[in-house]
Design a protein that fits this description.
mainly alpha
């Protein structure tokens, strides 16, 4: 997915137009028009960082390099596992996560890995 598609999608989720988001961030309306008309166009680094911060997503997500809005904090193994197992879904129920943990315990016991 290209940048403008993500920008449009995230703006809609906030109930705002792309030009309204840009105005709030100090980005010119003509710049938004340029992105819209040039599918391979991407914002300058400073603009990209402002947009990512505004939507609380990674720059890689905005640029279409990943489907995961935010990479997990590397200091939390559970978050890394959730991304690996569930594709970064934040809606992993406690029951589902408990089943994953129980399965890991089972595998460790089966192969004497404790």
């Amino acid at each position: 997915m290209l940048f403008f598609s993500r920008f449009e999608e995230l703006s809609a989720q906030k109930g705002m137009s792309t030009t309204a988001v840009a105005a709030k961030l100090g980005i010119a309306k003509t710049t938004v028009s340029y992105w819209r008309q040039n599918p391979s166009a991407a914002p300058k680094t400073e603009q990209l960082l402002k947009i990512a911060q505004f939507f609380d997503v990674s720059t890689d997500y905005l640029l279409g390099n990943t489907a995961i809005q935010n990479a997990p904090d590397s200091s939390t193994p559970q978050e890394i596992a959730k991304v690996a197992l569930f594709g970064g879904s934040e809606a992993v129920s406690e029951q589902a996560w408990n089943e994953v943990e129980d399965f890991v315990k089972y595998i460790k016991q089966k192969y004497n890995m404790q």
